[in-house]
Amino acid sequence: MCGVTGIFSTTSRGKLNLKIRQMSDAISYRGPDGDGFWVNQDDNVALGHRRLSIIDLSETGTQPMISPSGRYVMSYNGEIYNYLDIKNALKEKGYEFRGKSDTEVLLCAFEEYGIKETLTKVSGMFAIILWDRKEKTIALIRDFLGKKPLYVGWAGTDLVISSELKAFHTHPDFKAITNQDHLALYFKYACVPAPHSIYQNVWQLLPGSIMTLPIRALSAGTCLLSSMESYWDAADIIKKSAPQRAKPRDDKQAIDDFEELLSKCVSERMISDVPLGAFLSGGIDSSAIVALMQKQSTRPIKTYSVGFNVEGFNEAEFAKQVANHLGTDHHELYLSPKDALDVIPSLAQIYDEPFADISQIPTYLVSKFAREHVTVALSGDGGDEMLGGYRRHFMVPPMWNKMKYIPHPLRRLGAGAINSISADSWNRIGAKKNHPHLADSMDKFGGMMRQKTSTDVYDYLLGFWENPYEIVLDAKPVDLHFKQKFLESENLSFAEEMMMCDSISYLPNDILQKVDRASMAVSLEARAPLLDRRIFEHVWTLPEHLKIRDGKGKWLLREVLARHVPREMWDRPKKGFSPPLGPWLRGELRDWAESYLSVQALEEAGLNAKPIRKTWEDHLAGRRNHSVRLWSVLMYQAWREKY
Predict the structure, then answer these.
(1) What is the distance in angstroms between the CA of the first residue and the CA of the last residue of the chain?
(2) Judging by DSSP bridges, how do beta strands 302-308 and 329-335 pair with one another?
(3) CA proximity to 331, closest of 372, 362, 297, 299
(4) Radius of gyration from C-alpha coordinates of the chain
């Protein structure tokens, strides 16, 4: 795994060597094993690369790398998991290889097949900067589901490209001006959705997209969104798979086929020239990945988990049971509020764009823990989005299918009645029924009742601050890629619509950004077998009842796991991977939080203090658990202080 950088100057040829080195140095942790640079002063082009050596540790894997004919120069971050199959096909066509890196294979494939045809053949995760010396064009390419990030923007008259935004700050002409419209998006979703970024004149590539830029025709400051096109469209694949989903399927055959494909994807991700392990939370996804890894390994797989000494938040005990059953070499780390406090000051540096998924803390700490022993770790990311694993997938559709027939004005009246009952009253009722935070649930239910359409319901459930324009007063609404896909969806159930949108928005913008930054900050490569595009394409040929059944999600993955681990070890409600932030904010983190949430601090940040203070006071009083909303404000304040 690596970090990539690029500069393309529209006017000046000066100091390209210095600029590209400074950009690469800013993300050196993404590739601590070495760096490389390629500069062409005649074309005003410079590429940089930071290397984390995984496959082919020799100098033959060094980047930027030039293709055999000399046409292409590439700086590439990622892994092509089926590169050996492609390499063998290229050998039959007469290609010879100096080393055994997937980088060399990818460049040869570009020469033989062309860029877009090559992308139809590969399976992997990648962010690519490809300079075409013949056509004088730069191609920027992001992988199918968005595992690897890639940003592009303007720094004066220079086009700058990098895996992370912090590299842009090293350029003397970069103007770090916050886009207020995108800041409102952040407060809505706790991240900035692609293709947008927090800054003006900076964009991030959408998953499955390519941006081809004729450098000589570019004008400084030009909006680049129109140059982005899709080469692999998840929503289009889902649409085209509709006839196959309508076919009857045998349960056992479906389980057999899925296990065979997942096993292949796991096997490909176990290829490594450096030590390898896996994250193990004790949940369904990671347990299934570890089970299939251990089945294919001749020695105990190294597994890693973190836990919390707070009731209701600890899954480490379940992970240990699964590890013992499978016979892995298991390691666990219990986290305290002090551990969180120690990490918090570095979060803005790690994420370098406002980001507020509260599981970013344990994700970083388990990555750091695993990196003490391994350089590569497999994870279970991706199962929820494709197989209906979130509560909204299997709990909300039955509720909405009844609720939607009530006229909207009546629903709004009902929501008003729910909200008129104080949070304290709801919690007193909940305490009698072993539901201490009933107010939170009723608040969410009332919010659903206020929505007009299923699209509105999904957007409400995905959001943090329901009305971010109450927080960022000078912001305007922005058209979003995933909302348009939701509106265009056909022949999908409500659950499937949400799964589709999670795959193209929540997954890359939140989950994968979280894992990429946390793992790369400690120079660890995270691989996710469930995010193989072949699995995505296969799963969407299957009917919904193979994913959601009997009020539970991930039926297919559950059945695969049951073949390897007893159900009683993992068949329980999903807890997620979040720390007990609610009580921490009332306790050990309170003084730190108050420093950012004071009226003065909020107003200095240009935020509307009134709704934020009300939320903070309700949380401190224990009336509701507003930790996720408050965390978005705290992380913005920390980011603003840093950048």
Answers:
(1) 26
(2) parallel
(3) 372
(4) 24
- In sequence order, which ranges of 490-546 are alpha helices (DSSP H)? 494-501, 513-520, 533-539
**Residue range(s) defining the domain that contains residue 349:** 236-389+508-569
CATH number (domain holding residue 118): 3.60.20.10
Query: Is residue 29 a contact partner of residue 248, using CB atoms and an 8 Å limit?
Result: no
Same domain, yes or no, for 86 and 114? yes
**Residue of 231, 203, 74 lying closest to 144 (CA atoms):** 231
Please give the distance of CA 195 from its chain centroid, rounded to a whole number: 14
> In this structure, are residues 77 and 5 in contact, taking their beta carbons and an 8 Å threshold?
no
Of 269, 323, 139, nearest in space to 530 by CA: 269
Is 415 inside any structural domain? no
CB-CB contact of 173 with 156 (8 Å):
yes
473 inside domain: no
pTM above 0.90, yes or no: yes
Q: For residue 141, what pLDDT band results from cuts at 50, 70 and 90?
A: very high
Q: Which of 81, 78, 102 is nearest to 90 (CA)?
A: 102
- According to DSSP H, which parts of 27-146 are helical? 83-92, 102-113, 115-121
Does a structural domain hold residue 216? yes
Please name the amino acid found at residue 629.
R
Q: Name the domain count of the chain.
A: 3
* Per-residue pLDDT tens over the stretch 408-448: 999 999 998 998 888 778 888 888 877 777 888 888 899 99
d(CA 381, CA 394): 19
The string of DSSP letters for 141-170 reads EE-SS--S--EEEEETTEEEEESSGGGGGG
* Shared-domain flag, residues 182 and 57: yes
Active centre residues (catalytic): 2
326 contacts: CB under 8 Å, gap ≥ 6: 290, 291, 294, 301, 564, 565
With CA atoms as reference, report the closest residue to 225 among 200, 248, 249: 200
